Amino acid sequence: MPNPYDDILGNDGEKEKTPRPEFKPMEFDDDHFQTDGKEPLDEILESIKIFQEKADSFSQLLSKSRAIDHKVDGSIFSYFIISQDKHDQEHLVGEKKYHDLLKSKFEKIIVPMRELAELHLQTVKQFNQDIDKNYFSIEKTDHVIKSEKLMAVDGINLQRKILADASSDLDILKDALDDTERRIKKYINAGGVHNISSAESVMIEQKRAALTSGRTHQFNYSFFNLNLLDKTVIAFNVHMKDTSSQYLGKLMKAFEIR
Q1: Are the CB atoms for 205 and 240 separated by under 8 Å?
Q2: H helices within 28-141, ranges in order?
Q3: Number of structural domains, the chain?
Q4: Cβ-contact 47, 119 below 8 angstroms
Q5: Element (H or E) spanning 181, and its range?
Q6: Which residues is 196 bridged to in the sheet?
Q7: Looking at the domain assignment, is residue 229 inside a domain?
Q8: Residue 172 falls within a domain, yes or no?
Q9: In a domain? residue 50
Q10: Nearest to residue 165, comparing CAs of 255, 54, 58?
């Protein structure tokens, strides 16, 4: 007599078992479910360490560039007192070579500076996004978290100091390039071996302007110049959430120059 429950339970001897669907874990696209096991504060401190490793050689580059040697005397006395211009190369060939030297130094600074600025942006962005007064860690005590927060703030402020120093050097070189172009203009249609056309002079200025404005590298380096408030904030080693959010918004625009 057939088993009346065969249709419900199935019969191994007469019917094949219906295969069960294979279980597959859900795939989460949300970033919150994708982690390499590091806590946000640890990632920030690691980013700061990477920045400092790169900044070590960059700081030496700034020293070797000696931008201060090219500083233009912009004092008010220079307008009333006739004095020898220490940067005057005394002939057109010399001025062009000096102009090329200044451009080369500018280029060597702005390229690695942009790379450091991108690391700075990444660090500030993550700090603002993940770190606040309610931040906690499963593995660390409140004392350790507080200490590491201070280390992060100190690292961010150090980054700003280094980038500000580089920005200051670029400003010096920019002024020196402007001053050199002013002297080159004295040779427009001067005749002889020290002659330059007005058209060539304009082209020299145009190519230089693309470089010093940041357009060539899509980077507004002058953003990192420090005003009095910036210097005060850094001196007291603080990182206020509201103020920093405004800073982050402006920082992102430093890479959007047109």
Answers
A1: no
A2: 40-65, 92-130
A3: 1
A4: yes
A5: helix 142-184
A6: 188
A7: yes
A8: yes
A9: yes
A10: 58
Q: How many CB atoms lie within 10 A of CB 198?
A: 10
Q: Which domain holds residue 55?
A: 39-131+151-253
Per-residue confidence (pLDDT) for residue 75, from 0 to 100: 55
Contact 179, 75 (CB under 8 A): no
Summarised one tens digit per residue, pLDDT across range 116-140 is: 999 999 999 999 999 888 888 888 9
End-to-end CA distance of the chain: 88
Burial of 34 (0-12, 13-18, 19+ CB in 10 A): exposed
Is residue 182 in some structural domain? Answer: yes
Dihedrals phi, psi of 176, to nearest 5 degrees: -65, -40
pTM of the model: 0.79
Q: Which residue has the tokens 């004092």?
A: 75
Q: Which residues pair with 21 in a beta bridge?
A: none
Q: What is the pLDDT of residue 244?
A: 74
Q: Strand ranges (DSSP E) for the chain?
A: none
Q: What local confidence, expressed as pLDDT, does residue 132 receive? A: 84
Cβ count near 247 (within 10 Å): 19
Buried residues in 106-145 as b, exposed as e (16+ CB within 10 A): beebbebbbebbebbbebbebbbeebeeeeeeeeeeeeeb
Strand partners, 188: 196
Q: How far is it, in rounded angstroms, from Cα 27 to Cα 48?
A: 32
Instruction: In whole angstroms, give the CA distance from residue 244 to residue 75.
Output: 35
Amino acid at 160: R
**pLDDT digits over 68-97, tens only?**
999 998 754 454 445 578 889 999 999 999
Question: What does the buried/exposed string (b/e) look like for 79-88 if buried means 16 or more CB atoms within 10 Å of the residue's CB?
Answer: eeeeeeeebe
Q: Which residue in this structure is represented by tokens 């280029």? A: 107
Query: Has residue 8 got a pLDDT over 50?
Result: no
